[in-house]
Design a protein that fits this description.
Elements: H1 18-28, E1 35-39, E2 52-53, E3 63-64, E4 68-71, E5 82-90, E6 105-108, E7 124-127, E8 131-134, E9 137-140, E10 150-151, E11 162-164, H2 172-180, E12 185-189, E13 193-199, E14 203-204, E15 215-216, H3 219-229, E16 233-240, H4 244-255, E17 260-264, H5 275-282, E18 283-288, E19 292-293, E20 298-303, E21 306-311, H6 315-333, E22 344-348, E23 352-353, E24 359-368, E25 374-378, H7 387-392, E26 395-399, E27 405-406, E28 411-416, H8 417-420
Parallel strand pairs: 5-6, 13-16, 13-17, 14-15, 17-21, 19-24, 22-25
Antiparallel strand pairs: 1-12, 2-11, 3-10, 4-6, 4-7, 5-9, 8-9, 18-20, 20-21, 22-28, 23-27, 24-25, 24-26, 26-28
Helix pairs in contact: 1-6, 3-6, 4-5
The structure holds adenosine monophosphate and magnesium ion.
Length: 422
């Protein structure tokens, strides 16, 4: 298994732009996972670890795209109806085909092979809805193009073509494509084994009683879901108290058995924030201060040789830093392509002032007007602790570093959660 270099998370400047963070991850983080073969039914969401080359043409032979009649275009009268005797019938999957003759039509069904025959065989299919049948004679309207409704061999995929590429995450249609070229299994990256902790004396497990000053641990569940969505195998290791020795021992114990350790909380600079000191004692730690809002410093480092991510405690900062840093990091660790997610242009439904030189994400919901155009409506409360604002949102409006003032009606980039939170 590959190992990261000791200084892979080292960085200098006080405030790092998102692009810079992405560049560092791309340059320094390599895959640490192995690969394994999985059946197609278990391949969804996994990262492909091989190029898939088609050994066949799809379709393998010329065939009909509709139910109808295979004809020679040259037999058709361009000005008026043509009457042709029906000679032969071909269904999908039929092995032995009748030979076609000029001046006749062959009854044919969707997916059935085009017959060979005189003059190279018919090349055009008349849809049955556009014909009438009089006994054994088919009456064909004028106006059909040569080759209409017939599929060529290899028009979808040609033999030898690479249909799927190493590093891509498999979507339902990709799994289907693998089956279409005859694969029954695929080589994928092994799941990244992630140890997950939350930290804080105030945290309680959902289902337990809440004492004074306590809150339920929500981050661990949000992060668990985000990690699972990326295809990680998550080991939920519960809540750690705000005690240096306990945190240190727990992280030390998790190191040997996992590919990555993720925590939330306890990485600010208060004296109750012990995660930072614990990781420093076990390896090394760098605080990445990203030029983003909402956001808090994110701690990146290594516990022994195992990469470590310390997410902030605030629930909204957790999600935003996960999407900007942790998601690309995990995709790299699993050998995935880390192309930035697609954003979409929508109209801003709000005015907004922002600080220059930092990227800001505004939680927003999309509202359609009768013309079908989409407007992003901002959630009224935008504190970094307000998880319900994320629940109400469809995604994030991404405001670039150099923007300082946004006016309602301007076009903005919108990042739907569906692009990243899976
Ligand atoms: P911290 O970074 O530990 O100082 O936490 C910052 C804020 O996030 C505090 O208000 C914490 O109570 C809150 N917080 C920390 N961890 C969690 C968690 N797992 N679930 C919900 N809120 C949390
Ligand atoms: Mg805390």
């Amino acid at each position: 298994m590959a190992q990261l270099t000791d200084d892979c998370f080292a960085q200098g400047g006080p405030l790092m732009r998102v692009e810079e963070a992405r560049r560092l991850l791309t340059e320094r983080i390599t895959a640490v996972t192995d690969s394994e073969r999985v059946p197609l039914t278990e391949a969804l969401g996994r990262i492909l670890a091989e190029d898939v080359v088609s050994p066949v043409n799809i379709p393998p032979a010329p065939n009909s795209a509709v139910d109808g009649y295979a004809v020679y275009h040259a037999d058709l009268d361009p000005e008026q109806e043509t009457r042709l005797p029906v000679a032969g019938r071909i269904t999908a999957g039929q092995q032995d085909l009748p030979a076609a003759r000029r001046g006749t039509a062959v009854r044919i069904f969707t997916g059935a092979r085009m017959p060979a025959g005189e003059d190279g065989g018919p090349e055009t299919v008349m849809m049955q809805e556009d014909c009438t049948l009089e006994g054994e004679t088919v009456v064909i309207r004028p106006g059909i193009k040569r080759g209409a409704n017939a599929r060529e061999a290899g028009e979808d995929v040609s033999e030898g073509a690479t249909v799927l590429h190493a590093g891509q995450r498999l979507r339902p249609q990709d799994v289907g494509q693998a089956a279409a070229v005859g694969r029954q299994d695929l080589l994928v990256s092994t799941r990244l084994k992630v140890a997950l902790f939350s930290t804080g004396d105030e945290l309680r497990e959902p289902g337990d009683a809440l004492g004074p000053g306590a809150i339920y641990d929500s981050n661990r569940y949000t992060i668990h879901a985000l990690l699972t969505g990326l295809g990680c195998a998550v080991d939920d290791l519960g809540i750690l108290p705000d005690r240096l020795d306990t945190v240190r021992d727990a992280l030390d114990g998790a190191g040997g058995r996992h590919d990555l350790i993720v925590t939330s909380g306890g990485v600010s600079v208060g004296e109750e924030d012990h995660v930072k000191s614990a990781v420093e004692a076990l390896g090394q730690l760098h605080l990445w201060r990203l030029a983003v809002k909402p956001g808090r410093p994110i701690a990146l480092g290594q516990v022994g040789r195992v990469p470590f991510v310390g997410l902030p405690g605030n629930p909204v900062a957790v999600v935003v830093t996960f999407l900007t840093v942790v998601r690309p990091l995990i995709l790299r660790l699993m050998g995935g392509q880390d192309a930035p997610p697609h954003t979409f242009r929508v109209r801003a439904g709000f005015d907004h002032k922002k600080k220059k030189d930092r990227r800001e994400w505004v939680r927003a919901r999309l509202v359609g007007d009768p013309s079908g155009a989409l407007t992003a409506e901002k959630f009224p409360r935008d504190g970094a602790g307000i998880l319900s604002s994320l629940v109400a949102a469809d995604g994030l409006v991404e405001l670039p570093e150099d923007l300082t003032r946004l006016e309602a009606g301007a076009m903005v980039e919108f990042l739907p959660f569906s692009e990243v939170a899976q």
